[in-house]
Amino acid sequence: MSLEILERGATTAAHPVPLLFVHGAQHAAWCWDDNFLGYFAEHGYRSVALSLSGHGTSNSKPVGACSIADFVEDIRSVSDELPTAPVLIGHSMGGYVVQRYLQRYPAAAAVLLASLPPTGIAGALRRSTAIRMRMRMTHPGRRVEMADYLRVLFFDPATPDALVTNCVQRLSMETPARALAEMMLPVPTVRNGVTAPVLVMGGASDPNVTRSDLRSTAAAYHTVAQVVPNVGHDLMLEPGWREVADRMHTWLGSCGF
User: Fold this and answer.
1) pLDDT tens-digit profile of 196-230?
2) Secondary structure of the chain in the HEC alphabet?
3) Residue 83 · residue 111 · CB < 8 Å
4) What percent of the chain lies above the pLDDT cut of 90?
5) Could you tell me which of 29, 25, 23, 45 has the C-alpha nearest to residue 89?
6) Share of the chain above pLDDT 70, in %
7) pTM
8) Could you report the per-residue pLDDT of 45-93, keeping only the tens digit for each?
């Protein structure tokens, strides 16, 4: 198996711990490369992003057959090649995978961005289905275009059309069906043995991962969630991405990374 890896920057004396970025469903390593990898490389971090099995150009079994355990092992295989345990940054499904990883393997710290809560994906699936139903009711008899649906699902309403189109064109329409089914279950024994610091952050206009979800995740790791205004679900790609990155950078510094 060969995993797609994108990398920017190098470790420095000020920042010897690398950052490992983990994407969510329908995305791949590219979603970090637009903004975050360069930002953190410029701030002196070695920044690494992987495409999970079945995503991007990573070679593996079909994405629909991939399990959460497969994704956890993807992170482990990349982490093992790094000189020290990294800070893990997980987005959406990637945040859930990071939480499962923390149950088995060490990490210097974790950042959960618009992450599915420890309770799983059930709430987010109900909300995404409701969004599509509302769009159909608003325009009866008209087909709901996937691009319009994804705009509502992933982006703050003020996000420019050109940026949304650019991102949507790169999304995979293949669904990690097995992994999604497994995410109906909660993360087992949350906080069991997890001693690494955890940052929980999300967007104020995210219809998928609500403030209640963020509070639930933060409570599980004995911290307080940060909610970024004017940002939706894909907070690493939207115009407000820099505030998200700045907050992450400040938090990493406060933890000594």
Assistant:
1) 999 999 999 998 899 989 999 999 999 999 999 99
2) CECCEEEECCCCCCCCCCEEEECCCCCCCHHHHCCHHHHHHHCCCCEEEECCCCCCCCECCCHHHCCHHHHHHHHHHHHCCCCCCCEEEEECHHHHHHHHHHCCCCCCEEEEECCCCCCCCHHHHHHHHHHHHHHHHHCCCCCCCHHHHHHHHHCCCCCCHHHHHHHHCCCCCCCCHHHHHHCCCCCCCCCCCCCCCEEEEEECCCCCCCHHHHHHHHHHCCCCCEEECCCCCCCCCCCCHHHHHHHHHHHHHHCCC
3) no
4) 66
5) 23
6) 88
7) 0.91
8) 999 999 999 888 897 778 888 899 999 999 999 999 999 999 999 999 9
For residue 50, report the phi and psi dihedrals to the nearest 5 degrees.
Answer: -115, 155
Q: CA distances (Å), 80 to each of 41, 67, 118, 180, in order?
A: 20, 20, 25, 26
Neighbours of 93 (CB within 10 A): 26
**pLDDT value at residue 135:** 43
Q: What is the residue type of 250?
A: T
- State the pLDDT at residue 185: 78
Domain map (residue ranges) of the chain: 5-255
The phi, psi pair for 249, rounded to 5°, reads: -60, -45
Alpha-carbon Rg for the chain, nearest whole angstrom, is 17
Instruction: Write out the two tokens for 158.
Output: 């003020």
- Tell me the one-letter amino acid at 47: S
Instruction: Name the token pair of 89.
Output: 């940054």
- Longest CA pairwise span in the chain (Å): 61
For residue 59, count other CB atoms closer than 10 A to its CB: 12
What CA–CA distance (Å, rounded) separates 168 from 173? Answer: 10
Give CATH for domain 5-255: 3.40.50.1820
The answer to whether 105 and 76 have CB atoms below 8 angstroms apart is yes
